[in-house]
Amino acid sequence: MSDVTTSVDVRVPVRTAYNQWTQFASFPEFMTGVVAVQQLDDRRTHWVTEVAGARREFDAEIVEQLPDQRIAWRSTDGDVRHSGTVTFEALAEERTRVTVDLGWQPQGLMEKAGGLIGADRLQIKADLERFRRFIEARGSETGQWRGEIPETAGSAPARAAVPTEPAMPAEPAMPRESAESAASTASAGSAPDVVDILTSQHQQVKDLLDRTSAAEGPEKQLLFAELVDLLKTHEKGEQRVVHPVTRNSVEGGSQMANARLGEEQRADQLIAEVEDLSMNGYEFDAWFEELRSAVLAHAEHEEREEFPRLRRDLDPARLRTMAEELVAVQTAKN
Ligand SMILES: [Fe+2]
Ligand SMILES: [Fe+2]
Question: Where's the Hemerythrin-like domain (predicted)?
Answer without folding.
Answer: 194-310
